[in-house]
Specification:
The complex is a heterotrimer of chains A (158), B (83) and C (754). Chain A has 2 domains: 3-77, Roll (Ubiquitin-like (UB roll)), CATH 3.10.20.30; 86-155, DNA polymerase, domain 1, CATH 1.10.150. In chain A, 34% of the residues lie in helices and 15% in strands. By secondary structure, chain A is of the alpha+beta class. Chain B has 83 residues and is of the alpha+beta class. Chain B has a single domain (2-78), classed as Beta-grasp domain (Ubiquitin-like (UB roll)). Chain C folds into 3 domains: 19-26 and 458-603, Aldehyde Oxidoreductase, domain 4 (2-Layer Sandwich); 33-138 and 211-260 and 266-298, Aldehyde Oxidoreductase, domain 3 (Alpha-Beta Complex), CATH 3.90.1170.50; 305-456 and 607-752, Aldehyde oxidase/xanthine dehydrogenase, molybdopterin binding domain (Aldehyde Oxidoreductase, domain 4). Chain C has a 7-stranded mixed beta sheet with strand order 3-7-1-14-11-12-13, with helices on both faces. A 5-stranded mixed beta sheet of chain C has the order 9-17-16-15-10. In chain C, strand 19 and strand 20 (473-477) form a beta hairpin. The longest helix of chain C has 28 residues, at 525-552. Classes of the chains: A alpha+beta (158), B alpha+beta (83), C alpha+beta (754). Chains in contact: A-C, B-C.
Chain lengths: 158, 83, 754
């Protein structure tokens, strides 16, 4: 079985995987980073979004070996020590979740949207978020959260 | 006397179609007991959890001890299940 | 307390207690738990819609290295064929067991036939491929109207329709008939100047919770069972597993994981008893999780329906009679929500002559599960469409027609009793006065309005409020937090105790740590469990008042509780320095021990909810695509304990209803197999499909609840179907009666003009 090495949330990891092992399986089952969720297995729902070298990817459709030598960021690595990232704080304060299952993927997608569109508006968030399902909120408060989070990141200097 | 209204289905099964009755009762348990004396077998259906009762517009499920006033309007209806 | 009070925490937009866990990935959902030595369990499912199982050979699978147990239907207890009530649910355990694992026949594509537990997921997959099942394929039936035809393939050869006199002599797919109503329909229609008759169809919609079903189950050598799973009720899981597997409830401990959405779809179980059987045989814990394909093929959805409505009105807009026949798909065994569908259909209206008849019909699909306001969205869609058409025929404003005929306090509901205080008229008035309703529309745009009604339910709840010696409190309740209920429980407890919201820690307790609770559903949690939490907090306050009275050597009646302090009640009680909750808690050991408030209730007095929605759509005449431009939802919730989560429930319900109206449907092939088993082509709304959803909260308090709560979660999914269909119909000038309103149907309607 191949061994893959990568950086996950700032730490070097080296894991033995099967060729067919998915990145999400490596994260959830081998590294026990269960904050990344699996909602559909077919890359529609977005609950499994992580960042690979700064790009959001659906970790249910990336092989672990494709992530070799990559820098992977999961929801567990977003906060700064005991301080929530402004995007996380925005979701919490704007009630941008009900059940919370889509939230990890929404925060990861939101971070990417905020970086690409620092002055993002509602319409842009809706367009950019079409790869992430939420069944609870009707997206209303998620859109508000991402806009608020992006603006907070902007004010904090990105 | 309290006015008791049964569902059409209960009427069909137990009362020969009669669905409105005037009865002198104190609470839901008393009502079920007296209905069963009149219409043997009806108590089993009324108590198996499949039926709810509305007393003066307030909905009750599994409520043997709920009071029924002398002029109350009491309706039986299927228990409401939830999503 | 008191329904009209000014509150410090109730009605405030506090940050939810589990917010940090959920934005950091810490929260543990059903698939996130693991145990040492854990096996992976998987299910082999029927590839046929309807077939006799001639034989199952598991010998090769059993011999595969790494396979620790294999089970099939005969490994599960056979149970009495009788429907019984458990809390707010009804269940036939013989049928439930057969649905978990098929015995003699498979009844739908995806019906489980065998299960394995192995050391890895890959070995479990391999083992499934080694199980040989010999089927004799039978004719199948998928559509409800087809299933009711005399020559339709029969799912159950002995099923005689219940509720018909005299009882039919021949078996059919119609499990039961129900009927509601009163008055004289013939006279009612004779008095009408306008009569409209229409037939409507809706497709099954899946609840679409993002978290697939999952469970970790450990059966110890002494038979004790521990289950970690997500569900709408840990006690439901315990009750069902105990009965299905024939063991004592006390032997089972169900630890509720966070639940990633349910919407009614997690009021039933699919995996836990199978994992129990596998774990018991293997002597190891077993984890089972469904793929999305399994969720789509074998869980939920709600019923597809076929509905006839007839409505009469005088030329000045008085409704004279309403009649409906409802035919609902139950799935493979009886149990569609046609009863509540028939009871709710005309509920927003004051009708003197009304009759609804419902048929519960089995088809070769997975068993219908509850979905938000079970049964109501379809029947109310049909009626709301006819109301809209009636307004057009009469030349009346659709809200004015609704107001003229609105059910109000004292109106006899179509299902029998008279309504108490309800907010139906207030919702209509707020909708009429909302700026949305008078905003101009552009070309190809249409506006639709619809009302909705749901009963709301109460049920059994237990709560404990433990006062800590540092002046904080822990609130234990027994309902999974599906949409922010921890926040509302903490707010109510803080309000009663008079301490700060962040000094209250709400906990969702497991089945061995708190008394029985009915599940989270029917919009009961904030009402019923909220009532239990208020009562438990009041019990704690009474104990603290008694202790203060002892310290002051006065009667407990002379001590009042306000703003978190025991105080002498008036000058006659004496002149004592108030004692805070923290003061009393600190000395609890010296004053009789810990302070624990408790309440165990069967909450009575659930009060109905009404809502009115307005939606604007634009239809692209070239593609038939519908864009939802603007949405406003008005709803009477009694009291909004946490307005943000009330709004969230409403917005989420709207989004689901819009999906049901426009996009979501199951596509079955001629072979009776489901063809769209994933989110790619079972098309739930994404952010770009929806506008912001404006909400207007109406508060007509329910006097039965300490703060006036009615419940919120069910009503908002009801009006969108009718409102969207009315808006599209108005945009294209053709009445649309067959959901979902997909582009091909709209194009055909534009082309044909009907």
């Amino acid at each position: 079985m191949p061994t893959v090495s990568m950086t996950v949330n700032g730490a070097e990891v080296s894991v033995e995987v099967e060729n067919r092992t998915l990145l999400v399986q490596l994260l959830r089952e081998q590294l026990r980073l269960t904050g990344t969720h699996v909602g559909c297995d077919t890359s529609q729902c977005g609950a499994c979004v992580v960042h690979m070298d700064g790009i959001p990817v659906k970790s249910c459709t990336i092989l672990a070996v494709q992530a070799a030598d990559a820098d992977v960021l999961t929801i567990e690595g977003v906060a700064d020590g005991d301080t929530l990232h402004p995007m996380q704080a925005a979701f919490r304060e704007n009630h941008g979740l009900q059940c919370g299952f889509c939230t990890s993927g929404m925060v990861m997608a939101g971070l990417d949207i905020a970086r690409r569109f620092p002055d993002v508006d509602d319409a842009t968030v809706r367009r950019e978020l079409s790869g992430n399902f939420c069944r609870c909120t009707g997206y209303h408060n998620i859109v508000k959260s991402i806009v608020a989070g992006a603006h907070a990141m902007n004010e904090a200097g990105g | 006397m309290a006015q008791i209204v049964l569902t059409n289905d209960l009427g069909r099964q137990f009362t020969g179609g009669e669905t409105t009755l005037d009865m002198d009762v104190t609470d839901v348990r008393d009502l079920i007991r007296k209905l069963d004396q009149k219409f043997p077998g009806i108590a089993e259906v009324l108590q198996d959890g499949s039926m709810a009762v509305a007393i003066d517009g307030n909905l009750h499920q599994d409520a043997w001890l709920e009071d029924i006033g002398p002029t109350s309007e009491v309706y039986f209806l299927p228990a409401i299940r939830g999503g | 307390m008191g329904v009209d009070g000014n509150y410090k925490w109730v009605g405030k937009r506090t940050v939810r207690p589990d917010g940090t866990d959920k934005v950091t990935g810490r929260a543990l959902f059903s698939a996130d738990s693991s145990m040492p030595g854990m096996l992976i369990g998987k299910i082999l499912r029927s590839p046929h819609a309807h077939a006799k199982i001639k034989s199952i050979d598991t010998s090769k699978a059993e011999k595969l290295a790494g396979v620790k147990s294999v089970v099939i239907g005969k490994d599960f207890p056979n149970l009495p064929n009788k429907t019984i009530s458990i809390g707010i649910l009804a269940a036939n355990f013989s049928e439930m067991s057969d649905k978990l694992m098929a015995r003699k026949k498979v009844l739908y594509d995806g019906h489980p036939v065998a299960a394995v537990a192995a050391t890895t997921s890959a070995i479990a997959d391999k083992a499934l491929s080694l199980i040989k099942v010999e089927y004799q394929v039978l004719p199948h039936v998928i559509d409800v109207d087809e299933a009711m035809k005399p020559k339709a393939p029969l799912l159950h050869k002995k099923m005689i329709t219940v509720g018909v006199d005299p009882a039919p002599t021949k078996a059919s797919n119609v499990a039961s008939r129900c009927e509601f109503g009163f008055g004289d329909l013939e006279a009612g229609f004779a008095a009408a100047d306008v009569i409209i008759e229409r037939t409507f169809k809706t497709k099954p919609a899946h609840q679409g919770y993002l978290e697939p079903h999952g469970a970790v189950v450990s059966v110890a050598e002494d038979g004790q069972v521990t289950i970690w799973c997500s569900s709408q009720g840990q006690f439901m899981v315990r009750s069902y597993c105990a009965r299905l597997m024939q063991i004592d409830e006390a032997q089972i401990r169900v630890i509720p994981a966070e639940i990633g959405g349910g919407f009614g779809g997690k009021t039933v179980i699919y995996l836990e008893p199978v994992a129990m059987a596998l774990s018991g045989r293997a002597g190891k814990p077993v984890k089972m999780t469904m793929t999305r394909e399994e969720v789509m093929r074998a869980t939920g959805p709600t019923s597809g329906t076929s509905i006839d409505v007839k409505l009469g009105a005088t030329k000045d807009g008085k409704l004279t009679a309403g009649e409906a026949e409802l035919r609902y798909q139950a799935g493979c065994y009886p149990g569609s929500p046609v009863g509540p569908g028939a009871m709710t259909a005309f509920a927003p209206y004051n009708l003197e002559n009304v009759k609804t008849v419902g048929f519960d019909v089995v088809v070769n699909r997975p068993q219908a599960a509850a979905y938000r306001a079970p049964g109501a969205p379809m029947s109310e869609f049909a009626v709301e469409s006819v109301i809209d058409e009636m307004a057009q025929k009469l030349g009346m404003d659709p809200i004015a027609l609704r107001e003229l005929n609105a059910a109000k306090e004292g109106t006899t509901a179509p299902y029998g009793p008279k309504f108490g205080p309800i907010g139906n008229e207030q919702c209509l008035e707020a909708a009429k006065n909302h700026p949305h309703y008078s905003a101009p529309l552009g070309p190809n745009q249409g506006r639709g309005v619809a009302s909705g009604f749901w009963f709301n339910v109460g049920g059994e709840s237990v709560a404990s409020v433990n006062i800590n010696t540092d002046g904080t409190a822990v609130v234990l309740s027994g309902n999974p937090d599906i949409g922010g209920s921890r926040a509302s429980m903490a707010a109510m407890a803080a309000e009663v105790l008079g301490i700060d919201y962040d000094k209250v820690r709400p906990i969702v307790a497991d089945t061995s740590s708190i008394g029985y609770n009915d599940l989270t559903g029917g919009s009961r949690t904030t009402f019923a469990s909220g009532m239990a939490v208020c009562n438990a907090a009041t019990d704690a306050v009474d104990q603290m008042r008694t202790r203060a009275a002892k310290v002051w050597d006065i009667s407990p009646d002379a001590v009042e509780w306000s703003e978190g302090h025991a105080r002498p009640a008036g000058p006659n009680a004496g002149d004592f320095e108030p004692m805070s909750l923290a003061d009393i808690a600190r000395t609890s050991a010296k004053m009789g021990g810990p302070i624990t408030g408790r309440a165990a209730i069967n909450a009575q007095g659930a009060a109905p909810g009404f809502g009115t929605h307005i939606v604007d759509v634009e239809v692209d005449p070239e593609t038939g695509h519908v864009t939802v431009l603007r949405y406003t939802a008005v709803q009477d919730v009694g009291r909004a304990i946490h307005p943000s989560y009330v709004e969230g429930q409403i917005q989420g319900g709207v989004a689901q209803g819009v999906g049901w109206a426009l996009n979501e449907e199951y596509v079955y092939g001629d072979d009776g197999c489901l063809q769209n088993t994933g989110f790619l082509d079972y098309r739930m709304p994404v952010a770009s499909d929806l506008p912001m959803i404006d909400t207007v909260i109406i508060e007509v308090p329910n006097e039965a609840h300490p703060f006036g709560v009615r419940g919120v979660g069910e009503v908002p999914i009801i009006p969108p179907l009718g409102a969207v269909a009315n808006a599209v119909s108005n945009a294209i000038g053709v009445r649309m009666t067959d959901l979902p309103l997909s582009p091909p149907k709209i194009l055909a309607a534009i082309k044909n003009g009907s």
